[in-house]
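cache lookup: miss for this entity combination. No prior model stored, computing from scratch. Input as submitted by user K.M.:
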Amino acid sequence: MVIVMSAAAAGSDVGTAVALIEKAGGQAFVSRGAGRTLVCVVGDPDGFSALNLSALPGVDTVIRTSAAYKLVSRENCLARSTVQVAGASIGPGHVTLVAGPCAVESYDQTLRAAEMAAVAGATMLRGGAYKPRTSPYAFQGLGEAGLRILADVREATGLPIVTEVVDAADVGLVSSYADMLQVGTRNAQNFALLRAVGEAGTPVMLKRGMSATIDEWLMAAEYIAQHGNLDIVLCERGIRTFETATRNTLDISAVTIVQQLSHLPVIVDPSHSGGRRDLVLPLTRAAVAIGADGVIIDVHPDPATALCDGPQALIEGDLLELADILTRWGRITARHADYAGASAY
Amino acid sequence: MVIVMSAAAAGSDVGTAVALIEKAGGQAFVSRGAGRTLVCVVGDPDGFSALNLSALPGVDTVIRTSAAYKLVSRENCLARSTVQVAGASIGPGHVTLVAGPCAVESYDQTLRAAEMAAVAGATMLRGGAYKPRTSPYAFQGLGEAGLRILADVREATGLPIVTEVVDAADVGLVSSYADMLQVGTRNAQNFALLRAVGEAGTPVMLKRGMSATIDEWLMAAEYIAQHGNLDIVLCERGIRTFETATRNTLDISAVTIVQQLSHLPVIVDPSHSGGRRDLVLPLTRAAVAIGADGVIIDVHPDPATALCDGPQALIEGDLLELADILTRWGRITARHADYAGASAY
Amino acid sequence: MVIVMSAAAAGSDVGTAVALIEKAGGQAFVSRGAGRTLVCVVGDPDGFSALNLSALPGVDTVIRTSAAYKLVSRENCLARSTVQVAGASIGPGHVTLVAGPCAVESYDQTLRAAEMAAVAGATMLRGGAYKPRTSPYAFQGLGEAGLRILADVREATGLPIVTEVVDAADVGLVSSYADMLQVGTRNAQNFALLRAVGEAGTPVMLKRGMSATIDEWLMAAEYIAQHGNLDIVLCERGIRTFETATRNTLDISAVTIVQQLSHLPVIVDPSHSGGRRDLVLPLTRAAVAIGADGVIIDVHPDPATALCDGPQALIEGDLLELADILTRWGRITARHADYAGASAY
Amino acid sequence: MVIVMSAAAAGSDVGTAVALIEKAGGQAFVSRGAGRTLVCVVGDPDGFSALNLSALPGVDTVIRTSAAYKLVSRENCLARSTVQVAGASIGPGHVTLVAGPCAVESYDQTLRAAEMAAVAGATMLRGGAYKPRTSPYAFQGLGEAGLRILADVREATGLPIVTEVVDAADVGLVSSYADMLQVGTRNAQNFALLRAVGEAGTPVMLKRGMSATIDEWLMAAEYIAQHGNLDIVLCERGIRTFETATRNTLDISAVTIVQQLSHLPVIVDPSHSGGRRDLVLPLTRAAVAIGADGVIIDVHPDPATALCDGPQALIEGDLLELADILTRWGRITARHADYAGASAY
């Protein structure tokens, strides 16, 4: 059972509901997002009927749900969510561009990449300070020094930052610099980390595990939501298949399916899914056309010297076409996206 | 080594080249498509240098290729091909819609589906008379009676027909009715069938095997080309992965990669890849946006009674949106598609 | 519904049952194997109750089955089948070794490989005359000349032959030479071919499709059985996964699962699953230990010059260890295999 | 470059080598296991030639390696390792049984499961106190209370404990109870956790990621080794494929391949790979036969009431057959395993 609190609900209204539920022997998980508070109630739903929860102050509706994921489910026509990130927003009705270097290498490199991102229309900057690398001998990221660079570049460009956190113990530190936390594909079922970013309250971008089913991906989001944080953006970044022509296989269908199953925004990472620069713009066109709420793209001022994933970074010469796709295509997609939303329910 | 014959080359020019090559101990495979004739030369390339092949009458250029697939490769900037199918065409610069019922069930059902296809802007009719079904107890198609129905509906609507052939022995019969032969995903490495459709000369739509790499898919096309037929359209229809939310996982990246590797047109089957009606229009948007040369879509006047794959068929109410996607999106994609082609080489 | 005929049933008994069923509006598919005849009845089971089929002459039992595959299902405790191949047998209680060259290249090469096979304890000879190859430019097999070589080597060694058939049109020709027909992984859903080998009556080895689920594999076997032939041996040969260290991933669990679901014998191909000589003996140990009814193994007198799949062929020096595995391990496995069979039902 | 220290080397010998390397501008990673100390040297190998490292006191040999994983590689014929776990050992020459409940639920349940394990011949007890579960609403384990139960059961039975740790922050706590730490499939690329268990020094069982290639799996082990800990046991537990008949597909070939590539012991988890009780004993037979150094198996006194993975737990009645497999089969495998080791190099 999920209680949808009204926009005008006071904190005390939530407290009242929670207290009643716990008194009746249930468990209540409060999850807060931009302009939306949900309470997930665990226990026998029949046991709560006497509570008449829908009549409580501040309660909008009460949804009986059979979805395995409750707080992130779209069941019962819940409107799709918009996540706010320090002035930028990701949600239905427009296409958000998040761009930047795969890894933060230096202030100059990051600044130049951020300027490239801005030229293409980005409203958020991506960049990794903690890099999960297959080999322990590969560049592991600059750590906190990288976070400071990101903060300085934000200062210079005004772009809010999304950056990856790879350990629950680092969530506090990374949150103190970042506007949005990224949970990467290798940590998609690192439940300790999911709980920690849930408790942190900072908006989260949750990448799909490279072998996660859509169900498992939404369950991972549910961990974050259950621990208090409903400001979650899902990111499709390709799955592992037998095909070796691409680093991963972009599962473009997942965008539509997840938008039907969940109210959370969904963006696409055309850089990491293909792993090839020549696929980034075509996959961006596909992502925008199918109705993704945004794209996250690697750009680098000099990919040949990049310390991580150079071959997939866009360069200067690609930016105008990227901008063109996002404006021209975004416009006609918005209409489709709304229709899709409407027709699905 | 591949000899590109000029558009004006006479049949005797081809014969002269072949005779020279064979005399020099090589093998020559002549492959003919709409407005394009290629000759694949197998043997030691150095052994043919004295022949001065590029100076022969009717020879445009001679390409030394290292691609494993030679006749279907795009190496050395070969312009992308257009395949002509009885008045319809599939190739760069526009988006072709092929639509119709998954299986031919009756004249009425097929006619009504064809009329639906036409409303959406289809220039070709699809429909299966021979159905490869997982179970021997499932409906196996009407066979030749189905082919006759297709021919009658072509008569009534003017739409050329593409229909599947599942056995080398049937190629002659199916060719006598169909304008284009379809080789299905389960026969993607049925080499006897590939050879037979190569020899038949009728245009071919070659679906990707559900577990075929892009390389294997192009190699399957090479079998057809090597046996004389260059009028091949490749069709991405989803690959088999661990994800069970969709029947297959549409590998949208494959469209761009194949257009780079091969001169052959590439279309997408959004119906069979997702296996769900609610994904057909979104996936069509993605396919058009990435630059597919067409889409092939199941439509059915009454999906609830369909003998095969009803759940994925579009209905009456979907047709206008489908038409809108193809016109509105097709227009702006054409420009991108040309750019992509240009930039790739 | 499946009618199990008694061992003593006359041909006329089968005819009587079929006639009754058809008169009652049902369809009857008669399937014959070594010492076992089954009749699959399609139609409303309640409609046949008045026929009292189990009282008919020659009828042993009547099984109501809900399995999608009926003739090859093991439902209702059907004892596991043994398939007889010209004196050799494959079935429960012992481990059959089928060995020989991947491709027949010459009489000498085939004879030497057959002698190697015999040294290792093989009771059947494998060897391909028709080779399905990814590239049309690769060696495609010797065709009928290869079949003649196989027949000559059988003459010289006494080993019955299993060889692949790749086209329905060739089934008659190949059957005229071979003791057992092999349907390869690429033709695992070539239904025209499955029907043809079903009608031919020659024993069949059906390889699993490289992306076939166990259900699809059994359904493919059902096609053969439905067309009259119950002498089918299933062969697990690895499936396609993301792992690239091996050519395919041997699905060793499939052996046990298929033996539970079907009465047909199951063998393992450790050569093609791994694609590496150094895995053949270890995978053979695993196959024998889990209870496979046999193994099919590539041997070659001189792998370095092999025209097909040399890197996976065993050489002279491996034969004694192979023989040792099959005898020593086979002995203790036989007991387990029987137990497994008993405990599973 | 890897320095193999001799068994008699003093701690000061290692210190001397490290100091020299660092003085020459290199990095040295010291990794210690039972009876084996390795030093991985990163930097230009030619730059270290003047150091004459092989002549240093306590140095056995110096290996120039091109393997991406250096400390865990078997390059240059390194003998296979044995890992010691509080009296139990895992390594070549015998088959170790680790058994116990999937999750620790209570003292009684754990004690009874441990007694079952002992009956089957287990020398180590498994049991989860921290359970990584797909759903946040599923039983998440008893946490430290579970660790205390495990310690009490160890006291009662004498069996050393392996238990999972899911967060780097918990490594100290879990190490204070456990004899061996388990890193689960979902954390196979949780590099923060891998580093932490590397530093802890407690022996580690590293499960293969469900979509990890063999290379990625060995790289994960290298993280642990690089951080000081060479007492690592690798555990194959099935990979994710398209097949749905089993929870995962056991990649039995991986056992042999990993034993060739790495000196670390490799065990198999037949319970989690199949996810079905009826597959556990057959897969155990296959694992022992191919030469796995051990198996880890779920047992439960009452699977029907299990809070986690009941359907795959062995019961009382299976134990004697399990014991029989391990003794009877283990004996004849030992010989093969040694041979395999010998022949591979």
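stored under new cache key. The mean pLDDT of chain D is 93.
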